[in-house]
Every structure is written in structure tokens, then in C-alpha cells.
Amino acid sequence: MNEFDAVVVGSGPNGLAAAITLQQQGLDVLIVEGGQTIGGGLRSKELTLPGFIHDVCATVHPLAIGSTFFNRLPLKDFGLSFSFSESPLAHPIENTQAVILHRDLDQMTDELGPDAVRYRQSLESLVRHWDELSTDLLGPLRWPKNPALLARLGPRFLRSADQTARRFQSDRTRALFAGLAAHGMLPLHYLTTSAIGWVLAGLAHRVGWPVIHGGSQQLANALGKYFKSLGGQIVTEMPVTDVRELPARDYLLLDLTPQQLLKLKGLDFSAGYIRQLERYRYGMGVFKMDWALSEPIPFRDPRCRSAATIHIGGTFHEIKQSEYDIHAGRGSEKPYIILVQPSLSDPSRAPAGGHTAWAYCHVPHGSLLDMSAIIERQIERFAPGFKEVILVRSTMNTSQMEQYNPNYVGGDINGGQMDWRQLFTRPVRSLVPYRTSDPNVYLTSSSTPPGGGVHGLCGYHSARTLLRDHLNQKIDF
Fold first, then answer.
1. Helix (H), strand (E) at residue 446
2. So what's the pLDDT on residue 1?
């Protein structure tokens, strides 16, 4: 008899989700984590000064609070709570007011002027029917549960962000949409780049863009505590280089991207499957900064203080050019930046009177450029005096990001490029990409559908596939 029914390697949100799903169905599951703590991209640390809590990667969690998987778990009972800023997002623009993405869709009428009607019409169905649509949008390629509703959204999701922007009259609306779509880490003329923009906007109006009280680590901790309450076991500080060294088990689930799979010893994959993994494409990397601050960032437009998340990048054309250059392997002197001030809505992130901020810009895959001066100069465009409130800074280039979390290959935090060729068929061309060529080994990482983001759904769908394949157990939302 094997020691465990299943072993999960990796304790990011997807590894935790897979382990919980199996444990809920009566399997005996072990999670093996190489780091000192569980969490993967959810870890929080004091990167600058004592008492200043920084999220090493994920900070803002619209997909977590909107996740059809996480929402089914009693995570509040295990210490999880969210903190909301007044507005989900601000997008400053030079020589004019910032564009504010309000939680209330009705408030966008004054914000977007002549584009308000088109914006509302584009989002109303998504906002109203998110719970129904999310099972189709955030999962593997399959016949949709809501085909008519999805068909109405399909054309606007398939467009490039560039095509969508042309449908707006105002430069302000185009800039707002560019910042939303650029989360996808792709050139904005690529097909389907509108999808991420609409989903993030829809989530802002449906559930908000919260941070987690006390740091993103608290989500990992809550998931881990719930998993243990079901009888699951977790072992940390156990790096895995050879699966033959793991405890005996019936099934193995790997929260790893293709590059780590190819390095892992003891796997019996077919030659054809290995060739497909070798062809898997990774995307842009990120250069990340964290700051301990003496006061909030002094944005020229004070309305920016209403939002925890700020998109720095200026106009649509500036952001489009930046993303194009970086994807082509060139740097950018005015990069698109995602900036977060979690302490504005969560005072527990810093000592009294202090604040924390976090930002990253996209860089070419594997780039070792130090972007710290460029990032701070770009922020100063919209917040003169920003450097004067910095107490201590911390930086991480793409190599350091990968060292922190090996799944961030070349600094790619999405687990692989998410263009139309790798959106549903990742990491291989298969209708069920969670399966490997070994019938007892499954993938759970963000290199499977629906890709990057803190939602746990890659892990859930992987575990669901295993249960159907081997135990004839069918579970669904």
C-alpha cells in the first residue's frame, strides 16, 4: 500500500487548490514545498525595514475574490480578510485629471464622458453574470455552460486591445483600457488582448480589486490551514529534484512550468510529450521594486490616493509602444508600470505613519537591466517628490525573481506567454492539458488553463481531471 494517495509538488495557490480538491474527495494528500513557507507567489516578507510588510509577487486580488473555487471554501474561518480602497484603480495622465476606475459602474458616466455608454454596454453582461460566465472564462477549452451569453461577449474578447481602443472617442478612455489590457504582458495589437482588459474591468465593478489584510501570505496560510483541517499534510524545505525520492503515492501533481518539468528526474514522459514541452514559449519578464515610505506617494492629482492600484504609463500610444518594444527584446525609457500602495487600505502593512508601495515594469525575457532609476523617474512624472518620501528600496531583476520562485522563468510571472496559441492549449496541444503522457502524473501550474493569476483554478481543474480519470468522480461548480 502506498503511503499517500497523492503527492503535490509546490504550494502556490494552484498546488494548494489541487491538494484541497483531492482531500475534500477523501484522498490522503501530501504537499511538498521546497521553500521555508508555503505560498509561492503569495508570500509576504519584510523586504525593506522591520514592520514594513511587502508582497513578494501578487498583491491585488480581483481574481482571488472572484474565484469560483476560493469562494466555495470557508477561508474566513481560517483568518482570511480583504481590504478595499475607495476606488479599484487610478490612471494618471500628464496635464489633466487622472482617470479613476470606480467600483460603481454608474460613476463611470462622468469619468468617461462620450465613451461612457459604449463602456457600459461592453461590461454590463460580464458584471451582471460574472458568477455564471467565470466557469467558462476561467477553465479549459470545452463546450460552454452559457453559450448564448459567451457568444455575445466573444467578439469583444477576441479583438486586440488596439482595435478596442479605436472604438473609443476619448484619449482618457483609451489610456485606461491600455493599462488594463497590458496586464496580459503582450503587445496590444495581438488578438485576444482585449479579453484581459475587459475581465479586469468587469471584476473591478463586480467585486473590486482588494488587497489581503496583513499581506498576501495570509491567503496561502488560510488555504494551508483549511487543507490541514481536512487531514492533509504539508512538508516544507524539501526541494524536489528527483520524484523517486518522494514518498510512495498513487498520483503525482506538479505545480511546475515546463522548464522545471524537463529538469525533474524520475519522470517517465514520452518523447513526443517532451518535444511539446521543449517548444513551450515563455513571455516578458518583470523588474520589481518595493519601497518603505514616510508618507503616501504625492501624486499630482490627489484623486489617485483613492486607489490602491495605479497604472503608470501615460497615453494609450505610450503604453502600446512600450509593450511592443519590450516584447521585441528592447528596453523602454518610459515603461508601463503597475504600482500598488497596499498600506492605504491596509494599515497593518507598515508601522504607524509609514506606508509601503510596490511596482513592477515589464522587461524583455531574462533581462538583467536595472530598471530602478527608470521606474522611479516614470513615477515622478505623475508624483513629483516621490523620491523624497522613500525610506528604503528593494529591487528584484528577472534572475532574482526566478531564484525566488523557479516557476518565474526569465521573470515571466504568468507561467508562459498567454497569446491565442497558448491560452487554452498550454503547455501542450490537448483538450485536457492537465494530463501528461504518464497517466498518473498531472500538471497544476499556471502553465495550464486558465493561466496566470491568483484564482486556484489551474489546480482545481487538474485535480478534477484526475478524479474523473481514475476514480470516476465528477465534481463541478
1. none
2. 57
